Amino acid sequence: MTLITDVRTPVRIEAVSKVFGRGADATVALDNVDLTVEEGEFVCLLGASGCGKSTLLAMIAALDEPTTGVIDLGGRRTAVMFQDANLFPWLTVQGNIELALRFSGVPRSDWAARVRELLAVVRLPGAARKRPHELSGGMRQRVALARSLAQEAEVLLMDEPFAALDAITRDALHAELERIVRERGLTVIFVTHNVREAARLGDRVLVMKPSPGRIVHEERIDLPRPRQMEDPAVAVRAGLLRDELETQDAGTEVQG
Questions:
Q1: Is residue 142 domain-shared with residue 176, that is, in the same domain?
Q2: Which of 130, 167, 224, 233 is placed for a possible disulfide with 134 were both Cys, Cβ 3.0 to 4.6 Å?
Q3: Are residues 187 and 243 in the same domain?
Q4: Computed over its alpha carbons, how large is the radius of gyration of the chain?
Q5: Are 121 and 63 within one domain?
Q6: Model confidence pLDDT, tens digit, residues 8-36
Q7: How many domains, the chain?
Q8: Domain housing 126
């Protein structure tokens, strides 16, 4: 048994490893990862491509199984948000969110009101009838966030959701995410390879290294909120994270 539900525990990952393939062709993607995330905490997983960040997130979301180890969600529901919004192009914004409401068991009679509420939360009140191709990249990610919130999840898993956006849009969505997380008391595990993004968003940043993927450093970010990417204190913390990544020789994909 690799997935436990116990409402008394925080999110807990113990001795989790993931191996792809067998024998001589086996690749150890993650090796003996331990992680505890407290309720309401915003944790960033930081590292270069190939260090197992997304693999770990997928296993927390139960999209994949660990080879060994235990993942304990403490009875909490999860929702996942990816770099690509993955909206169904033939559905309107309302239809995309209603699909999540349907699978979450929300009565059909409540859908319209819930969609209005969620679009107000992500500040897209007039977008219900639009289709994805009519929206900017930032607007599509807002819809993806609304769809994640529609699942009534307590743990939000985010896999580089803002990596493809321009700096202005990304900064605006950082502020929106921070507001929504605070208002709803969400627990967030956020994957990034951008040191400034990690320092700007995280309560705690976990640095990972590849070959095989391991957590090798923890940095607690005790800066007051709200923060901005250009804040001098954020820049200092980002510099420390970059130094740690370089020490671990985590590769050349790190941004900041």
A1: no
A2: 130
A3: yes
A4: 18
A5: no
A6: 467 999 999 999 988 778 889 999 999 99
A7: 2
A8: 88-150
CA angle (218 as vertex; 216, 219 as ends), nearest 5: 140
163 and 71 within one domain:
yes
pLDDT at 213 > cutoff 60? yes
Residue 101: phi, psi to the nearest 5? -65, -40
Residues 71, 57, single domain; the answer is: yes
Residues 142 and 190 in one domain: no
Model pLDDT for residues 162-178, shown as the tens digit of each residue:
998 999 999 999 999 99
- Tokens representing 105? 């068991």
Q: Is the residue at 115 inside a domain?
A: yes
Buried b (16+ CB within 10 A) or exposed e, 127-166: bbeebbeebebbbbbbbbbbbbbbbebbbbbbbbbbbebe
The pTM of the full predicted model, rounded to 2 decimals, is 0.90
For 158-221, the DSSP string reads: EESTTTTS-HHHHHHHHHHHHHHHHHHT-EEEEEESBHHHHHHH-SEEEEEETTTBEEEEEEE-
Phi, psi of 92 (to 5 degrees): -70, 170
Spatial CA neighbour of 205 closest among 92, 15, 37, 4: 37
- Helices 137-149 and 111-121 sit at what angle, rounded to 10 degrees? 130
